[in-house]
Amino acid sequence: MADQPHVESTLKFFDQWNTDFPTMCASFHTYFAKDAIWWNTPVFPQVQGVEEAYEQILRPSNESSLAMHRTHVETLNIAQVGNLVYNERIDHIIQTDGTVVLSIPICGVIEFNEDGLIQHFRDYCDTTALVAAMSGEG
What we know:
By secondary structure, the chain is an alpha+beta fold. Helices cover 33% and strands 39% of the residues. It has helices spanning 5-17, 21-31, 50-63, 128-134, and strands at residues 32-40, 47-48, 70-81, 84-94, 100-112, 118-124.
């Protein structure tokens, strides 16, 4: 993948999500630009920077009834065009005991800056089951 360095970075980023919650959070410090924007469908807030991502998306996913410990990303298709990476994947949200609590099909677009860091991270998916699981209704 030498000719697609951003695909390689994206796959490494996703691989770190499948370790544990602290490693997943640390991956955002490694791969996100300081002022990166994460837009995770209209249901969740658009966040800017790693601290907002942690406070408004990651931590609530861990502390809610969803109890996300790690996420196994099953990549179905991935391609790079210029500084954009397009990905089709299934995010399997896993609790501490290994239970897969939710699997979410997602299409995403990741835009890298000139330093090779993620500048914009956009995910498109149906969040109905995710919101229900986070609120204890799923």
